[in-house]
Specification:
Layout: H1 7-19, H2 21-26, E1 31-39, H3 42-47, H4 51-62, H5 66-69, H6 76-84, H7 97-104, E2 116-124, E3 127-134, E4 144-149, H8 150-157, H9 163-168, E5 172-175, H10 178-183, H11 185-196
Parallel strand pairs: 1-4
Antiparallel strand pairs: 1-2, 2-3, 4-5
Helix pairs in contact: 1-11
């Protein structure tokens, strides 16, 4: 099982995309990358209090080069990182997770208001060519942007609700060419069912 979001989850999604022949076939004509925006909410704050979730989140942040992570400075996410003692301009490998959890317990819902985590995914002709965390302002030219709360994203990546239903109910907000999206609906559905939900999450 993987923690969402984490380095392990990203690697497992890439592997699931390679293995799913159904997805490859359905998405063989798909062209277009996604900027995925995961917005902090009260569920995210609660989940960060779990050691394994904090470790997973730190592994995701560690995927970013230091100069990239520094771009969080002055943003709501950057302010939370600084409150927790997570350096934006240095190594995070040696951080004490128990100390982070103690500081996380002192955060309030107000502290995480406006916090966003960005993951860029490059979908191309049935392949996921790349997937990685990003700093604010990067890949703003992505063909599609999909934004929503952490709790909405968990519903999608766990397979408990499909992407289309979450978009129609406005729990996830999609920007991009909707007619293109509708034309490739099968690819979108299989992306959710076989690639994202194909990775069991804790």
């Amino acid at each position: 099982m993987a923690i969402f979001p984490s380095k392990q989850w990203v690697e497992a999604v890439l592997e699931a995309a390679k293995k799913s022949e159904n997805y490859k076939e359905a998405a063989k004509d798909w062209e277009g990358d996604f900027l995925c925006i995961v917005e902090g909410d009260e569920e995210f704050l609660r989940e960060l209090g779990r050691k394994e979730v904090m470790q997973g989140f730190m592994s995701l942040m560690d995927m970013m080069p230091v100069e990239q992570r520094a771009k969080f400075k002055g943003t709501p996410a950057g302010n939370v990182f600084e409150k927790l003692g997570i350096p934006l301009d240095g190594s995070i490998k040696e951080l004490n997770v128990d100390e982070l959890l103690n500081k996380t317990a002192k955060l309030s819902a107000e502290d995480i208001k406006g916090v966003s985590i960005y993951v860029w995914a490059d979908f191309w002709h049935g392949a996921v060519r790349d997937m990685a965390p990003m700093a604010p302002g990067e890949h703003e030219d992505a063909v599609f942007k999909l934004a929503g709360t952490y709790s909405a994203w968990k519903l999608m990546v766990s397979g408990k609700q499909d992407t289309i239903r979450l978009i129609m109910s406005n729990k996830l907000r999609l920007q991009g060419n909707m007619s293109y999206m509708m034309k490739h609906m099968k690819a979108v559905v299989l992306l959710t069912k076989e690639v994202f939900a194909g990775v069991p999450i804790d």
